[in-house]
Design a protein that fits this description.
Elements (H helix, E strand, L loop, with lengths): L2 E6 L9 H18 L3 E4 L13 H10 L5 E8 L5 H14 L4 E6 L6 H6 L11 H12 L20 E5 L2 H10 L3 E3 L8 H11 L11 E9 L3 H19 L19 H10 L3 E4 L1 H15 L3 E5 L5 H18 L6
Parallel strand pairs: 1-2, 1-9, 2-3, 3-4, 4-5, 5-6, 6-7, 7-8, 7-9
Helix pairs in contact: 1-11, 3-5, 6-7, 10-11
């Protein structure tokens, strides 16, 4: 039985502000809780004018404060940017404020360019290479503190905040398998190694104290609307965002276009279509069929649905359509 969740990049729409994005995220989270989504995750990005969730733990607290039952977490925290103790304290604080509702997904990319990574004041030489050790250190901070432990996370110690490993390659799949942790693959923007990573993770998984069997979460873009044509129109905001990244001019989320043909070059179109191969677009019927096909193809335990939709009402409607499809596809699924 596949569970459905939400990944929110807290997009800053063209002409708007981060404050506007946070208010939209709050409303989407409240609706997602009402519609039966399992969890609501936010992602760490830096120096991105179209993404408001740089201070990810702060935004998680904002969302958790305005909801009551949905799990809220990071998808993810880019651990090379931070000392593990700081993250343990931040998420220990969140878990203390909102017990039983906080998740911590961890990635090994900086979530930014190299210049921005340096501005974050971390040593770049070995931060990604020490990722496995940093995950272990972080995990230990959430365990019960021992009497002779010199450094403790306060709050954090003994709270056992659930850890997830995120990735877009084989590395995190192998590490998640070795550590017996749930694994989330970034198929919503980097699907190339998705099936290989899933196979490695499942085949090499070692049960742990926290997880008895492999658990796979997959990112999926879904642009649902009342008609197929309207879904395709909504998708153009994300397509423009990816083209602008290719061109080195990232910016705020732009309004949808009637057509992309006069916007992108053929090589840009090919790149974007590869990156967004895991995307379902269209009417409720089309989306339901697309969700079923993706689940059948991957056997995902959980789908992390994301949608960079410019119009807030259309974004809410898209997630509502997905929730209605889930109710049909998984009528007995437990949240």
């Amino acid at each position: 039985m596949t569970v459905f969740s939400v990944l929110d990049l807290s997009p800053i729409n063209q002409g708007n502000t981060a404050a506007h994005a946070f208010n939209n995220s709050k409303e989407l989270a409240q609706k997602a809780e009402q519609w039966g989504y399992r969890r609501y995750w936010l992602a760490e990005h830096h120096n991105m004018r179209g993404i408001a969730s740089a201070a990810t733990a702060v935004v998680i607290g904002h969302i958790a404060a305005h909801t009551s039952s949905i799990r809220v977490g990071a998808g993810g925290i880019m651990l090379p940017n931070h000392a593990p103790l700081v993250i343990a304290e931040q998420f220990g604080t969140l878990e203390s404020l909102y017990p039983g509702r906080i998740d911590l997904g961890l990635g090994r990319a900086p979530g930014s360019d190299q210049r921005t990574a340096r501005a974050l004041r971390r040593h770049l030489g070995d931060s990604a290479e020490s990722f496995a050790q940093d995950v272990l250190e972080l995990q230990q901070y959430f365990n019960e503190a021992t009497p002779d432990q010199a450094v403790c996370a306060v709050p954090g110690a003994g709270l056992h905040v659930p850890l997830w490993l995120l990735g877009s390659s084989m590395y995190s799949a192998q590490l998640a398998a070795d550590m017996g942790l749930p694994f989330a693959f970034a198929s919503h923007f980097a699907p190339g190694f998705m099936k290989s990573a899933i196979e490695i993770y499942r085949s090499r998984f070692k049960p742990s104290a926290t997880l008895a069997r492999p658990y796979v979460m997959l990112g999926l873009n879904v642009f649902a609307a009342d008609t197929d044509d309207e879904g395709q129109r909504l998708l153009t905001s994300l397509q423009q965002q990816f083209v602008n990244l290719v061109r080195g001019v990232p910016g705020q989320l732009q309004p949808p276009r009637a057509s992309m043909q006069d916007y992108w070059r053929p090589e840009e179109q090919a790149h974007v279509e590869r990156a967004l191969a895991c995307t379902v677009v269209g009417s409720p019927e089309t989306v339901q069929a697309g969700l079923q096909a993706f689940i059948d193809d991957t056997g995902a335990d959980e789908l992390m649905i994301t949608a960079q939709i410019y119009d807030h009402a259309a974004r809410l409607r898209s997630f509502e359509i997905v929730a209605q499809a889930r109710a049909v596809l998984m009528p007995t699924a437990r949240l």
